[in-house]
């Protein structure tokens, strides 16, 4: 008898097919016999849901974010969490660099201008030699730093602890923002980082500063960001993630110094195929009693 599996969010047709070959899938009302949950990095798993699923053994995330999961409730029930670690790191870092360059060199704005028949456009901003600030120096943060190194600027970062790297550690986000020309966000969402990028941090980033967020929309006070962009207290923003996805405020959509992406950090054909395979491997390894490669420590 295949195990019952709850699909907490929509997943790609390819992953759904792989799961349907191995499990009995449930989309709306998971039965109490559910042994596994699968969903994207933004799924919510709270204590009320867990109370209805006494046989649940594993939550397999199609992604690496897990800020929507009640970790205390999961740990209290001995349920495992597995993520698709390492597979999407390089793609998300590519997206971060692409957004930075797209804002600075006005790639999207100039493309729109040309399609309207315009040839004369405002100047962009130089990418080389800039001070690159990275908030969260984990897998994605380090991959961003490595990509930024050849641009010849200084690389600064902050995280919960200092790392054994050559890049300069800053004691906190406000200091990092003040010292940076570009501020990349690569820390997890959740209560600890909720709206840490507020009006004060944006003011420290300053009128020549660019914010790039490939982490979670929850890290940014979106109203404060809109206000800073509208009054040109920062130079621009490249945003892959938003406070209330898929709703993106009109104010962000109408500004030319903002480049938007609909949460595409890991959205490459190669990455998504590898992520789907790893979700399946995490589940199969768990149910076969093997080591689960993406087990969250
Ligand atoms: P990771 O390897 O766990 O790294 C997270 C980093 O953030 C670590 O350096 C950690 O510091 C730091 N951090 C955690 N809490 C912090 C806090 N309160 N203040 C400052 N720094 C803090 O995670 P990752 O794989 O790089 O992924 C990072 C995030 O990117 C994910 O959580 C996810 O939300 C997001 N993401 C987005 C996309 C997308 O499509 N846009 C795709 C994948 C992931 P320490 O090392 O000192 O603990």
UniProtKB/TrEMBL annotation:
Top-rank taxon, per record:
Bacteria
The record ties this protein, via InterPro entries, to: D-isomer_2-hydroxyacid_DH, D-isomer_2_OHA_DH_cat_dom, D-isomer_DH_NAD-bd, NAD(P)-bd_dom_sf
Alphabetically sorted, this entry's keywords are: NAD, Oxidoreductase
Xref: Gene3D superfamilies: NAD(P)-binding Rossmann-like Domain
Domain (D-isomer specific 2-hydroxyacid dehydrogenase catalytic) ranges: 34-294
In its UniProt entry, the species of origin is given as: Sphingomonas yabuuchiae
The D-isomer specific 2-hydroxyacid dehydrogenase NAD-binding domain is annotated at 97-265
* Any Pfam family matching the protein: 2-Hacid_dh
Can you tell me which family this protein belongs to?
Belongs to the D-isomer specific 2-hydroxyacid dehydrogenase family.
Q: Which SUPFAM superfamilies match?
A: Formate/glycerate dehydrogenase catalytic domain-like, NAD(P)-binding Rossmann-fold domains
PANTHER family given in the database record: 2-HYDROXYACID DEHYDROGENASE YGL185C-RELATED, 2-HYDROXYACID DEHYDROGENASE-RELATED
From the record, give the transmembrane residue ranges.
Answer: none
Q: Name the chain's protein.
A: Lactate dehydrogenase-like 2-hydroxyacid dehydrogenase
